[in-house]
Amino acid sequence: MTATALVDQATQSLEDPYNPTFCCKYYICLLSHINTGDESWENPIASDAPYAGNLKLSLDSMVNLPKSMKLLDRVSIFMTCDRSREDMTSLAQRMEWHCECDRTDSLVDSMHAWRWNPAAFDRYPEGFTCRTTTLGGLIAIIADLLFAAFELKRSGEDHQKQWPRSRTDCLGDSDESAAVMFCRWLDEYPILPILRAIGASACLFARGIIVPFLLSAHLPKNLVAILKRGVDSIPSDFEGTMDAFGVLYPITCVFTTMRDISNIDDGVSTAYFFREHCSLFLETLNRIAAIDDRLPWSMNATWDDGFSMGGVVHAKLVLPFDESKYHSKILDWSRLNRMTILAVQTPYELARNVMLTLAELPAQCMNARCPNKSGQGPFMMCSGCKRVAYCSAECQDKDWNGRLPHRSVCKKIRVLGDTTGMPIYSTPKIEPTQIEISEFQRRVQERAGLSMFSLMTFNEKMIPDDRIRRVVNDSEPSSSSDLRAMALTNCISFRI
C-alpha cells in the first residue's frame, strides 16, 4: 500500500459528498494518519496494523500538493454540504452499521484491519474523547483536520498557494450554508473538535461566516451546554494541574471559541446572542470563577475572555450587583462594561433612544430611591422638562440633587423633546414618534442648537439610570432578517 494510492482512492470515493463509497472505519483510519504538525499529535491507530509502516501523511505537505488538496476539498465539503437531520441520520446508519465497502479490494480491506491505540495521546479528557468508529468520530477527525489546516493557512508565509486556496474549497458556494452545517453537526454531536473548527473558520473567513454563526439557535445553546458539561466533569477535590489538555481543557476550548466568533465589530450584543441561555451561562461562569480561585496559577486571558463576556451579559441585562449571586470576577467586568453602550451607539442614536425610553416608560416616580415601590400614582410632572414624573414634591427635591441629579439634564430633556417632536411622559397611550436617526440629528442640530459634546454629556448622565439603560440596551433587531441586514451594514456588535 502507498499513501498516494490511498489518497487517490479516498478522493474518488468522495466525489459525491452525499454518497460516500466507504464506511466510517475506512475514512477514520485514513484521516487519523495525517500528522497535523501539532506538538501533541500522536497517531491514535495501533502500530501493529498491517499497513502502518507504509502510511505516512503530513498535513504540512498536503496543503501544498494539488492531489492532496483535492482530498481536503472533498473531506471539507463532506462536512459543510447541506444536509437535513433525516439525511444525517440516514448517513450515520449507512456508514456505521451497513458497511458496503468492497473488501475484495486489498487496499480497502487493509483500511478495516486496525484498532485504536489506548496509549496514544488524546487532547480531549475523559468524557470528551471522540475516538469511536461512528459518524460522530469521523466528523470529529474532519473537524480537527480543518482546524489544523485553517491555522496553517493563517500562519503560512506563502498562504496564497496553501489549502484552502479560496473559501469555496472548504465552504462550498455559501458561507451561510457552511456555518449552518457546522452548527447542525455540533447540535447532533456536541464535541470539542467542532467548536475548534468553528473558531478557526471564524478567524480565517471573518464576517461572511461569523454573521451566520451569530444567528444560529444551535451554537449558543451548545456552547453553554458544553461549558456546563466541562464544569460538571471536574472532580470535587480538583486542586489544579499544569496539563494544558487536562480536565480544564473543555472550559478553555469553549472560551476560545467564544472569543474567536466575537473578533469583529458586528452588532449583536453578547446577551442577545445567548438569548434564553443567559441565566445558565452566568450560573456556570460562577462555578468556573470559583474553580479559578482554587487554582495555584491563573488561567490567564483565555478564561478572562469568558468572565468578560459574563460581565457583558450581566451589564446588558442590568442585573443587580449581588455578590451572593454573582462572582466578583463577573461583577468587576460588568462594572467595566455597563457604560460600553456609549461607544456602541452613536451620540445621536443613543440620545434618540433615551428620549424614546422616557416616552415609553410606564408611569412611575423617577426618583431612584423612591420608597413607593407599588408604582401607583398620582404623579406630578417636572415643570421644567415636562417629561419626568414624581410621586411627591419630596421625591422631586431628592432627585433634583440626587446621585443622578435631574437638574443637570432637565433643560436638555425639554429642548430635545420639543425640537424633535417626542410625546411627553404623561401620555403613554400616544405611540412614540418613530423618527429616523438622520432626521433626529438634523432637528437637534438645526432646532436645538446642541453640540456633539453637549449631546455626549447628556447621554453620559442619562445612561447610568438602570431603568433607562435596561430599555436602551434592548434596542436590538426584532427578527433574524433585521439582524442580518444590520450585520451586512456593519452596525452590529457582539458586545454591549
From TrEMBL:
<dbReference type="InterPro" id="IPR002893">
    <property type="entry name" value="Znf_MYND"/>
</dbReference>
<dbReference type="Pfam" id="PF01753">
    <property type="entry name" value="zf-MYND"/>
</dbReference>
<keyword id="KW-0862">Zinc</keyword>
<keyword id="KW-0863">Zinc-finger</keyword>
<keyword id="KW-0479">Metal-binding</keyword>
<feature type="domain" description="MYND-type">
    <location>
        <begin position="367"/>
        <end position="410"/>
    </location>
</feature>
<protein>
    <recommendedName>
        <fullName>MYND-type domain-containing protein</fullName>
    </recommendedName>
</protein>
<dbReference type="GO" id="GO:0008270">
    <property type="term" value="F:zinc ion binding"/>
</dbReference>
